[in-house]
Amino acid sequence: LTALDKLKDIFGLNKSKAKRIMLEVFSVFYLRRLSKAFSQGELESATSKETFLCSELRFDPFLSSEDSS
User: Fold this and answer.
1) Distance of alpha carbon 52 from alpha carbon 43, whole angstroms
2) In a domain, 22, yes or no
3) How far apart are CA 26 and CA 18, in angstroms?
4) Into how many domains does the chain fold?
5) Helix or strand holding residue 35 (H, E)
6) What would the pLDDT profile of 34-64 be if each residue is shown by its tens digit?
7) Is residue 33 part of a domain?
8) For residue 52, is it within any domain?
9) pTM surpassing 0.70?
10) Could you list the residue ranges that cross the membrane (predicted)?
């Protein structure tokens, strides 16, 4: 089971509600990591900021370009 499936099972959530919760949690984590990378100069020294963030957060680059609406 994926983390999203486990979340749905534990709390009895429908798919869209569970997905929104996961997105919210990821967004908070992303912003914290981005802030840390910026303040420590990691982004400045990275060859590609997009590649750095996608690899650092293990986020699929294809998904990052999708429209979330």
Assistant:
1) 7
2) yes
3) 12
4) 1
5) helix 15-39
6) 899 889 998 888 888 888 877 877 766 665 5
7) yes
8) yes
9) no
10) none
